[in-house]
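Figure 6 in text form: structure in, sequence out.
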């Protein structure tokens, strides 16, 4: 068969330089994905790749002449279009690479200390009835949200978080974004929940923002009510009340570390 003969010819030409060539291309692709990892564009990029692969598969499977012609002759246009569409993310990614280096980007995050800091701060603010909104960045980057606030870039601690949300402080009304084990920014503006059920229509702006950011990303939000001191957690567009700091710790460990909840799932806020 012609395809098998062509494959054999290609394999005969595969030598040490070909290995270097393949590894170099793989390194470039991997580095590009790492540059996008801190932005929301990563999710959009995955969706675009899935769509392109689907079009290619359908065109080849059904021998669609026009579709195959467009796919074969649109690679350059796709590259240029991606560079234009993702220009802010590429610029931020390159800046991140220049500041931290590849080694810094590859370090894994340990959430144990982060969770304890948030739980301690939430307990204090709940007792004092200080309103707060803390967002944990997960796989979907929140750099565009970070850009709306004031950059902090400080290691998270209970004192830092409670200080930010102390009443009448300049940043207490907006959200804090936690990236890894650091407070990336404070005073950040979040999108409000777009479509709430009838039972949640009476929620305030802070709770709506906590839900809104989790509708569009995989982030986890922790919100403390200024009126009641109640603590709630939002994820995947759902707001859940937690009874105390012990329950908050269990829910956060479940959502970020995958640990099982010790008892039943907390009840959804009515």
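Output sequence:
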């Amino acid at each position: 068969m012609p395809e098998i003969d062509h494959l054999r010819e290609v394999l005969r030409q595969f030598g040490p330089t070909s290995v270097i060539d393949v590894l170099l291309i793989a390194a470039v692709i991997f580095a590009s994905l790492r540059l996008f990892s801190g932005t929301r564009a990563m999710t959009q990029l995955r969706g675009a790749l899935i769509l392109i692969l689907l079009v290619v598969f359908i065109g080849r499977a059904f021998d669609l002449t026009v579709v195959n012609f467009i796919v074969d002759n649109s690679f350059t246009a796709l590259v240029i279009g991606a560079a234009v569409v993702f220009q802010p993310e590429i610029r931020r990614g390159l800046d991140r690479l220049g500041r931290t280096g590849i080694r810094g980007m590859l370090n894994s995050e340990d959430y144990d200390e982060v969770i304890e800091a948030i739980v301690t701060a939430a307990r204090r603010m709940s007792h004092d009835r200080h309103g707060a909104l803390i967002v944990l960045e997960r796989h979907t980057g929140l750099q565009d949200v970070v850009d709306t606030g004031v950059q902090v870039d400080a290691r998270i601690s209970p004192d830092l978080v409670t200080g930010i949300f102390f009443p009448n402080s300049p940043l207490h009304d907006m959200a804090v974004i936690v990236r890894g084990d650091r407070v990336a920014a404070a005073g950040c503006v979040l999108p409000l929940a777009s479509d709430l059920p009838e039972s949640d229509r009476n929620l305030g702006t802070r709770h709506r923002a906590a839900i809104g950011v989790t509708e569009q990303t995989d982030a986890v939000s922790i919100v403390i009510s200024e009126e009641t001191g109640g603590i709630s957690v939002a994820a995947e567009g759902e707001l859940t009340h937690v009874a105390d700091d012990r329950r908050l710790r269990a829910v956060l460990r479940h959502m970020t570390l995958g640990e099982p909840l010790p008892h039943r799932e907390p009840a959804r806020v009515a």
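Caption detail: The first strand starts at residue 132 and ends at 136.
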